[in-house]
Specification:
The structure is a single chain. This protein has 316 residues and is α+β, with helices and mostly antiparallel strands. The chain has one domain: 4-Layer Sandwich (Double-stranded beta-helix). The protein is built from nine helices and 16 strands. The strands form four sheets. Strands 1-2-3-13-5-15-4 form a seven-stranded mixed beta sheet, with helices on one face. Strands 11-7-8-16 form a four-stranded antiparallel beta sheet. Strands 12-6-14 form a three-stranded antiparallel beta sheet. The structure holds fe (ii) ion. Fe (ii) ion binds next to loops.
Length: 316
């Protein structure tokens, strides 16, 4: 049986559409082709009431490309974006898990602090707090389109380093190099501030909380420019706020928009299932340089070798 035509309802912001009438667990090739065209157009697609199993989410995610491995402990393609610890308790403020979740409340694009940035990411909702915990998306294509000529010319040719150490430090947390995802010794990737989408050809602003240190500018001037750019870019009508319901699945294009989590009371569990798709080396791989906050520097053009290297050096 073929997927029937589905309904696309734009959110009213410059990005995002709600898709109904398309059960993702039964997605066929024709349905996928139409869905992917909508994905490139809207940047973020919202699928209410899908209630996918981990396996079904994994199958859907693999339509977009190869899932990233986010942690040495990760089995399969799904990673828990959750404040529930493995022992069942809730993560506390002095714990890495809690601090990374709080850090995600700053605007960002996924994995830009790794040599190979992510191109697509998805989340599905399993357990939600009674209030807050929304996910917001901001359209960096429309933000670029809204810039005046002088600002565009100023940004053209500029790049910034990206580091999870930097972004977590600005959020008030200090992390040691421990080869966990992003807290590595591969250095800080240097990425252009303007990204051309490899499939649509549209330009967008490519920055976020991980970005710092524009070569050629003082650290103060760089921080001021990046903060202003982020603040100006993430404004209506370029922002969509997703109020989660259990069973929703949301998928977005990291190559042209930013996102952030909204705060919630950490006394309540919030459990989402995430899958990130690795970028294409031709367009999402960046050269890395020593990161002043990391111990050591071993340049690498791969996100995966950290885990292999860790296995080798730990002798098990
Ligand atoms: Fe994220």
């Amino acid at each position: 049986m073929h997927n029937s035509p589905f309904t696309i309802t734009p959110t009213g912001a410059t990005l995002g559409a709600v898709i109904t009438g398309l059960p993702l667990a039964q997605l066929d090739d024709a349905g996928w082709t139409s869905l992917y065209a909508a994905f490139l157009q809207y940047g973020v697609l919202l699928f209410p009431g899908q209630h996918l199993s981990k396996e079904q989410q994994s199958t859907f995610a693999r339509r977009f490309g190869e899932p990233e491995k986010l942690s040495p402990r990760q089995r399969g393609d799904i990673v828990a974006i959750s404040n529930r610890r493995l022992d069942g308790g809730l993560a506390q403020p002095d714990e890495y898990q809690y601090q990374i979740l709080r850090g995600n409340e700053g605007w960002h694009t996924d994995s830009t602090y790794m040599p190979l940035a992510s191109k697509v990411a998805m989340l599905s909702a399993v357990t939600l707090p009674p209030a807050g915990g929304e996910t917001e998306f901001a359209d960096m294509r429309a933000a670029w389109d809204a810039l005046d000529k002088a600002t565009r010319e100023k940004l053209q040719g500029l790049s910034a380093y990206h580091s999870l150490y930097y972004s977590q430090a600005r959020a008030g947390f200090e992390h040691k190099t421990d080869h966990l995802y992003g807290l590595h010794d591969k250095g800080a990737p240097l990425r252009p501030l303007i990204k051309v989408h490899p499939e649509t050809g549209r330009k967008s602003i490519y920055t976020g909380r991980h970005a710092y240190g524009i070569p050629g500018l003082s650290s103060t001037a760089s921080e001021r420019l990046l903060d202003n750019l982020l603040e100006t870019a993430c404004q209506p009508p370029r922002v969509y706020t997703h109020k989660w319901q259990v069973g929703d699945l949301v998928v977005w294009d990291n190559r042209c928009l930013m996102h952030r989590a909204r705060p919630y009371d950490a006394a309540y569990p919030r459990e989402l299932r995430g899958t990130r798709i690795a970028g294409d080396p031709a367009t999402e791989l960046a050269p890395t340089y020593a990161d002043p906050r990391a111990e050591g520097f071993k340049p690498s053009s791969s996100n995966h070798s950290i885990l292999a290297q860790r296995k080798t050096t730990s002798g098990n």
